[in-house]
Write a structure and sequence with these properties.
SH3 type barrels; Hydrogenase assembly protein HypC; Hydgase_assmbl_chp_CS; Hydrogenase_HupF/HypC; carbon dioxide binding; 81 residues; alpha+beta; iron ion binding
Length: 81
């Protein structure tokens, strides 16, 4: 199963043609490659999958997604890492 995780963009930079971002993944700071064509700015939210930011997501959608995950976790449906 593939799982995309919502993350808040903390910082964006480029090296040559590649764009990178430092993102906050539930309190963990991670560096990801931005693999989307649209502009990404500090404060935006992206879906991260396999070390890449693959799409932007609205803050409201992030809140909904995290609420669903919390509900599943509280029901005992834990996702093993």
């Amino acid at each position: 199963m593939c799982l995309g995780v919502p993350a808040k963009v903390l910082r964006v930079w480029s090296v040559g043609e590649l764009r990178y971002a430092e993102v906050d993944l539930g309190g963990l700071s991670k560096e990801v490659i931005l693999a989307l064509d649209e502009p990404v700015n500090e404060g935006d939210y992206v879906i991260v999958h396999a070390g890449m930011g693959i799409s932007k997501i609205k803050e409201e959608e992030v809140e909904e997604t995290l609420k669903i995950w919390e509900d599943l976790y509280n029901q005992g449906l834990h996702i093993e890492q």
